[in-house]
Amino acid sequence: MWRRAASLSSLIFSSSQPLRDQQGAYSLKAWKFFCADSSKGAGYFSKEKNLFITFVLGGPGSGKGTQCAKIVENFGYTHLSAGELLRREIASNSEDGAMLLDTIKEGKIVPSEVTVKLIQKEMESCGNCKFLIDGFPRNEENRIAFEQIIGAEPNNVLFFDCPEEEMIKRVLSRNEGRVDDNIDTIRKRLKVFAASHHPVIEHYSKKGKLYKIDAIGTEDEIFERVRPVFAACEGAQ
Ligand SMILES: Nc1ncnc2c1ncn2[C@@H]1O[C@H](COP(=O)(O)OP(=O)(O)O)[C@@H](O)[C@H]1O
Ligand SMILES: O=c1ccn([C@@H]2O[C@H](COP(=O)(O)OP(=O)(O)O)[C@@H](O)[C@H]2O)c(=O)[nH]1
Ligand SMILES: [Mg+2]
């Protein structure tokens, strides 16, 4: 079942799912308790209850990174962009660099273990327990690898729902010098996205963790659709 985030003033949760905000609030309360208790202790990372994880999903150019920056600013999460971690790995001349660059240029998905290990390294070295994981998992294999290697599931999943033509327009005007921001790669990426994201979305939808956000509008308008998801977790509503 979708959780469609609606406009600013109304309740974002469908009336058939009234418990979600309560569950989110309880989860974060538990997180605060465990973080306060052991955030500096050895092995804190392996204690699943310490983590409060949101996966931020959506097609290329749907606005994931843009909205993550706003969530960080307003709610103090640590933002981990899987694509950014891969680009950093390429720039560091790692032995996987050539394979990663080729995969990204082709718009394909990097082997799960590589991406999950990069995410894990960042999570382990970060004092924060609240993570936005942006652009991951991109397929079921990614999802399963994360849950096995990290030993945790996301608390929430945001899905930015954006029409293809809008995604193409945004990517082509992104202007960040990315090797994949060209029409050939974007077309390939959209095919990969269409073929691989549904099972992930369905999985979290069935678990009642999915928030589907309409990604059309100004950046601020979209953030007002996102804000209540996090405000509910903070118990601020
Ligand atoms: N709501 C929006 N309306 C128009 N352009 C946007 C919007 N949100 C983001 N953008 C722009 O679209 C491009 C892609 O956004 P980005 O956040 O990088 O998307 P993603 O991480 O999903 O690929 C960026 O140039 C960004 O400034
Ligand atoms: O978990 C991930 C995240 C990214 N990528 C690769 O990195 C590219 C860029 O991803 P990013 O999330 O930065 O792109 P965005 O969706 O933000 O445009 C993707 O097309 C993939 O080739 C990947 O293989 N696995
Ligand atoms: Mg991005």
Any idea what the CATH architecture is? 3-Layer(aba) Sandwich
N-to-C span: 23 Å
Radius of gyration: 17 Å
CATH fold name: Rossmann fold
Bound molecule types: adenosine-5'-diphosphate, uridine-5'-diphosphate, magnesium ion
Beta-strand portion reads 5-15%
Q: How many individual domains?
A: 1
Give me the strand/helix succession: HEHEHHHEHEHHHEH
The number of E-state strands comes to 5
CATH superfamily: P-loop containing nucleotide triphosphate hydrolases
Count of DSSP helices?
Answer: 10
Biggest sheet details: 5 strands, parallel
Q: How does the overall form come out from the CA principal axes?
A: globular
User: What percent of residues adopt helix (DSSP H or I)?
Assistant: 40-55%
Average pLDDT confidence is: 84
The parts where pLDDT drops under 50 for at least 5 residues are 6-44
Biggest sheet, strands in spatial order? 2-3-1-4-5
Binding site for a ribonucleoside 5'-phosphate: 87, 108-110, 135-138, 178, 189
Family: Belongs to the adenylate kinase family. UMP-CMP kinase subfamily.
Organism: Rhodamnia argentea
GO biological process, one term: nucleoside monophosphate metabolic process
Give the secondary structure arrangement, pairings included.
Layout lengths: L18 H20 L13 E7 L5 H12 L2 E4 H10 L5 H9 L6 H13 L5 E5 L5 H11 L5 E6 L2 H9 L10 H14 L1 H9 L3 E5 L4 H16 L3
Parallel strand pairs: 1-3, 1-4, 2-3, 4-5
The structure holds adenosine-5'-diphosphate, uridine-5'-diphosphate and magnesium ion (MG).
